[in-house]
Each structure stands twice: as C-alpha cells, then as structure tokens.
Amino acid sequence: MPARHPAPGPREGRGAGGRAGGGVPSGFKVFLKLKKQTAGPRRLTDRPEPLTFTVNGQEVVAYQGETVGAVLAALGQRAVRLSEKYGAPRGLFCGMGVCQECRVTVDGVSNVRACMTPVSLGMRVELPGVEGPPHG
Amino acid sequence: MTHSSDVILLGGGIVGAACAFYLAREGVRVTTLEAGRLIAGTSRACDGLLLLWDKVNDPEFELARRSVQLWRDLSGELGEASDDALEFTVSGCLALAKDAAQREAMEAIRAKMVRWGIPSEVEWLEPEEIPRLEPNVARDLAGALYFPNDLMVDARRATMTLHRRGVDAGARLLDGLGDLRVIAEGGAVKGVAGRDGEYRAGCVVVAAGAWTPLVLRPLGIEVGIRPRKGHILVVEKGPQLFRIPLMDTGYVATVESRAEDLQVGLILEGTMHGSVLVGASREYVGYDRSINPVAIARLARNMVRFLPALSQRRIIRTYAGLRPASDDRRPFIGPHGAYRGLYVAAGHEGAGITLSLATGRMIADMITGRETFMDPTPFDPAR
Amino acid sequence: MDKSYDLVIVGAGPAGVAAAITAARYGLSVGLIDEYPEPGGQYFRPVPVAFRQSGPHDDDPRRTVLEEIRELDVDLRMGTAAWGLFPERRVALLDGSFLQGRAVLVATGAYERSLGFPGWTLPGVMSAGGIQLLVKSHRVLPGRRVLLSGCGPFLLPVAADLLTAGAEVVAVLEAVPWSRTLGFGVHALASADRRRQARGFLATLLRHRVPYVHGASIVEAMGEGGVRRARWARLDALGYPLPGTEREAEVDLVGVGFGFIPAIELLDTADAELVYDADRGGWVPALTEALETSVPGLFAAGETAGIGGVDLALVEGRIVGLEVARRLGQSVPEEEMAGLHAERRRLLAFASALNRTFAPPPGLTSLLREDVTVCRCDESTAAEVVRVIDRGCRHVDSLKCEVRIGMGSCQGRLCAPLCADLIVRRTGLSREAAGRLHLRPPVRPVPVTTLMSMP
Q: What residue numbers bound the domain in which A28 lies?
C-alpha cells in the first residue's frame, strides 16, 4: 500500500480553487495570481474543478481539463519514461501528440500519450521505471 | 555506356543478393542490377522466420532444409557481427491450433515431418501444455506444435548483408536503374539494358521475384508466377507478451489455397527491438501494393483471437509486399532452354527469405558447372 | 458504415476552420476532424473549456472564426484523428468510423523541426512550440530557467509568453546572423501589425534583459535525469560552432525550434505527388492554383501545403471552400476568388522570404556527433547512421534497411529530417535527393481495437 504523501499544490480541504488566504487587498490578488499560484507553484492561473488521481501510486491533485502531461509539468516531473534500449530518461518533447515521447501507462494500458490525455478522477498513471513525482 | 561482367543478376532482392554472394565468392565477375532503390521489392516487406514445417511439397522441403543449414553457416561465419548483420536467432516456432480443423492440420504436419525424416524437430502439445511455454496465449485452443530449432532473421538486414558481402567479394551492385530489359540476340542472352546504359554479360539470372514474368515475356517466355499480396502490421514496443514466434497450423492451408479471395493465417514475431510483426494475408490483386483496410482488419482480429492482450496495443506501421507465387508451388531455379546463358531464380511465394541461400548456392553451382546439392529438375524454369 | 459529406476536412486549425466556414455558408455538408477537443489547431489552441477562463492571446481578432464555426451547420468530429486516407476519398478515424467526402481537404498543419545535439533527448529539452502550448493553453510553466535556441521569429513570442508567465529566460539564440534578421526586418515591418508585434516582443525581452543573440546555437544539454545545464556557442557563416565562444548556464528547460515541417503524411499515403521546396519547409504537395493535389478531389491548405503562417492558412482555407462549392454547383463570385488568390500570392511571397531568411544553416548538422541519438524511438546514434551512409546508402527510405530509423512510434517524424541532413553532409547530395520516408497508413499509431472494428 503506497504511503500517503501530502499532495503538492493547493492545500486540501479548502474547496475548489483554494484561495491564498482571506482578507487580501484586491490589488494584491492580481499580483498573487501571477506569482504565487494557489493552484500549484507552476500553474499560472487557478482553475475551478479539482480532482485527484494517482501517479506511481501517489495521490495528486489536478483540475478538470488538464492533461496528464500538463499535470506532470506542473509537478516538476520532467522524466516520464525510460527508453527501451538504454534506459535513458525521456520527457515531453513536442507537447502536441506527434513525437510519442511522453508515453505513460494509464489504468493498466501502456503507451498512452500523456500530453493528449485529459486527467480524470481516480485515474491511475504509472511511469514505469521512473521515480517520482516530487513531493510538496 | 557499356559495362561488362560474367554474370548479371537482374533483381536486387534477397534471391538476387544470395546468387551474387555465392557467385562472387567463386571468383565469378558479377553485377547485380536493381530497377528501384534498394531494397525496392518484396524483400523489403517480409517477416523473417526461416521454417521447415510449412513447406508444401518435397522438393521445396529439400531446398529449405539445405537453405536453413546455409543460414546457420552464414551466421556462424559472421560471428559476433551476426546480430547486427542478420539479427539471427534460434527463435523456435509455436504453431497453434484454434479449432478441430486446425488440430487435424497438426496431424498432417507431424506426419509430413516424419516422412521428411525430421520427427525430432516437432513437439506435440495438448491445450493445457501451451501456457507453460506461452502464458499469454488464448486459453481455448485445440493444441499446438512446437518447433524448437526454427530460425529467425531480419529480412532487410539479411538482404543488405548478402549484398554487402557480395560486394566485398568483388560483386558490383547498382540500383535506381529504372526498368531493366534482357538483351538477347541469336538465341543467346547478351546482357541487360537499363535507362542509362547497357550491361553486357554472357549469363543473365532473372531474379525479379513477382516481376519476373514481366521481364521474361518480351523474350517470348511465359513463366507460372503471379503476384500474391501480403500485409504486415507492426505492433508498437511495449511489455513483452510472448517469446516464441507464433503461427497457426492453418497457415499451410492458406499457402496452398488456390482461392483468389483474401486468406489470413497467423504470424506473430517479436523483433529484437521489442516491436512485433504480424502477418499473414494472401490475396491476388495484381501488382497493387496499397494497404487494404479489409486485410488489416482481419489480421488484427486474428492476432487478438490467439493473443488477446494484443488488443490493448497500437499498430504503428503497415506494409504490403507481393509474393511471387508459383503455379505449382515450386520455385523456378535454373537455366532456361530458350536462350543460352539465361537463368531464372524466382517464384518462392512466401518462403523467399528461407529459400534464398539454397537458391543462390544452386545457381552458383549451375553456372560454375558443378553438381548441385539436389536434383534441380523439379525447379526447371521451362517446365 | 461510412458517413458521407460534400467536404471532409482533416484538421481544425485556421485553414480547416476557414474552409469549413466557407463551404458551410454555401450550403455544403462539411465534416471537420481534429484530435483536440475543440477546434483551433496549434495556432488558436484554446485554454481547456473546464478552466472557464480566457487565454492570454484571446484578443487576436482572427479568433472570430472559432465562434463563426459554431454558428454553422458543420459536423465537428473533435477528439478523434484521421489515421488513413483510402481510395475514393475515405478518411479513416481513430474512433473506428470512416468519413467519405466528395472532396477531402487535408489541413493537418505542421510540426517543429528539431536540432539533434548532445543531450537533446534529456527531459526538459522540448520543442519551442511544445513549451508555448503548455504556457499559453495549459497555463502551466514547464520550467523556471529557460534557454531558447532556434531559427526564426517564432522564438520571440515563445520567449515573451515565458517571461510574462514568470520564467527566467537566460537567452534567446537565433542561429542566423544579425544581418539576415535586419535585412528581413526592413521588409517585414512594412506591415503595421507586424511592427506592433515586433515592438511588443522586443520590448518584453529588453525589459527582462534577455539577450537576443544572433549567429548562435545551443551545442549541448547536460544533466542527470533531466537537463540542468546548457552550453551554447557562436556560429560561423556556415553555422559551425566557433571553438572558444562557448558559454554555459544553469537551466531546467530548453526550447528548440528550427523551423516547421509540413505534416504531409496523409497526402503521402494517398500517393499525392510531393515536391521539395526549401522555402516552404521541405516536402510539400504539388498543388494546382485551386490547391488541389495530384489526386482528384484531394486538396491541401495551410501549413500542410507549405509553411506560411496563419493569414495564409486562413486565405487558403477559404480558397478551398470556394473551389469545392463551385465544383459542386454553387455560384461563387469571381471577384472574391480573384481577391483571395491575389492575397495568397502576396502572403506566399512573404512566407517564402521569411523561410529563406531563417533557414537553419547547414553547419548545425555537425552537432550530430557520433554518440548523439538520431532516432529517438529506437535509439540509433549518428555514428550508426553515418556508417550505413558511408557504405553507400544514400536515401532516407533505404536507411531503414540497415539501421533502425523511421520505424518507431513517431514514424520517422523526428529522425527523417536529421537523417536527410546526415546524407547531405556525408555525400554532398541535395536535401531533395536525400529523399524522405514514404508513409503508409496508419499516419499515427492506431489502436488495435480500431482496426478490429473495421469491416
């Protein structure tokens, strides 16, 4: 049973969007949107509908409409698979479904392109041979 | 521009390459001419199993037996380079029977192997014994035959290796020549003409596969070869599902069938690189090499019937090739009496890779005036 | 059972959408296919609907076509892709269905040409377009400290998007020399719109103090598990790195963009004649004035027809829409058609000049050193490919017979251009003579279940 890790990104239990904190002057809110994204350190905007799924058994918070590839990028998880012959780490390259470098295993099915696959609640994503995602 | 040599090989597929290879090593001055860009024809579109059990008549079997030995010899000769040059493995082969009719075929195949004197090359498996060899194969089969010593190569690598080794031994190799025409005068061949020049030789071996009839017809020669199209699907690399190449025992029937419509048998071969080659379809549609969606649908359904987990995978490539099907299921190998110096080496249907080396050996023996390893009468091109 | 339309369009980018709108306005039945969930292609790639927000480029006036198309009776087949084009204009879709058109338009856009260099396969090295997509559409930063290297003005909006999103851009490296950019700039900035854009991008770079270095290129990406450092160098007149000019920086993201390659694969499988045009991105379909390929009823428009930008794509889409409408009996105003053709000629001239100016210099191929990966799918190295070339193999499609290239999941899209470069370098043949891969269906990996479901 994989250990539960605190999910990176929005503090859980705050509901959709998870604002940075109450009572912040409106001028600052715009600044915070750009710099300290509450939807996750690398996300540029908030988005409304959170969901959870797992990556290598670790629970991850993501948002409706995101792709697996975008979520991995948001997590700072650059390596998504190991090359078959030399075991070299590979990550997203073209981002548009053409290069086939971002192949991961989704719900037991291998060779699914992360960049073109929308996340869904409870989805099991595995990156065989790759460590991660990073915590916090 | 005129070039001259002793022997011209008209056709740069594996049969032509094998002929050139053996001839060059005998010190014969050989030029191989290919109309297209290497590898242009059927040798580009093959799977790589080198089998004995699927041969349909005794002469073909004899030729295959010799040829398989020559493949072993070649791999031994290449040593470490054999991996890169041939991708040679002793893969074995597992022929599955999906129903009662295919189980009957198991009997026929075993009886054939006994008659040919190689009963030890086949092992009979009951359905419950199959999973120990291949756990992912469908669990509702009627039995299987296991051929532990069958061989496998990569057809393209092997073809190019034969070409390159031939060149190393002094053969000349020219491709991209456009349509090639045999030059004949006074009852003898004089050479071959291409787009940019003539190539003179006293001996021409027509090894043009499915296109052989088109080359011979202008000489007034009809030969019983028809193009028989096949498709191959390539399954993307992924978790390995099987080790031993898989076929079905109904495969032989598709080879022997005289039906004009689409025949589908099973071939599943894992390559050294993790991809899987899937065959095998047969249809008579002239020289059309376009991909037929009906054929690839049937190949897909058939492969999943035998190996259900393949349904989760993706196909990344398809290709089609034209087998040179011989009317009487025996290739045409040897001199053609209509012209002095004219030889034919073609018509191997789906066994071209397997039979190429023995064909080359036989042609080299014939041209250098040696007795060859078997009676060549069954392969007489003028029969 | 096939579904039939007057016009089937593969690709819902600017060209495809423009053609669909035009044809639909003339009452034609139109089926429009795209792999993304909404139309837009790469240029208009919208922010996902579920984010319920607009994207940073949503003020582009060209985007009105995305609303227009929704108001018309166009059958939008989104979320699926065409994997084959079979005789009698039957388009095979990944969802197992076939669409048949009295005419078919292939407007599948383009993909980025990469540079092969040591470390280019490391995680964190991405195509510039891929980075832009993540930032602009997915609203996510794939890295914090970025080096951009490539050819052509496309690097500038990518840099600007990254800077606006809060990333640090270490440098923007443009491989062609200053003189080329200046010379072109004078020509290009004749347009007020382009002046405005250029000012905006350059101002952003200036504000963030990002060096915009000409005649330079990345030469190596280094790191364990992912890129951590990048090295770049200045280039000589032919594009060879100049020893002694190397600089390094710590980065966690590298964007490479050395031009675009038309996605002609579907056309190739239909045996449409392709010609080599270096000014249009390489292999492009041979087209009539009406943008018809050598296969009757099969058209091409937008980047597929040759790299030329969004405005050209919109015009070409409209031309095809009108042409098909005319052939199917609609009365199409001659002046409108003539106007579009004139506009097309103008935009073509600009596009060709731009592509010519920013063509990757040949010396960059020297970065494909022996142990550098050429085929990412099968991991063949430059040394392995060169050995086969030196043995006498002089055509990309023949290389596959002796070395693993072009046989993996990407179907040669990444490695074939690099192999052509290597053939040119080793043999002196032209890029055209070095050839290309000839594709058969599927033009993208197709699920076995899709094939099983076909009749």
A: 12-41
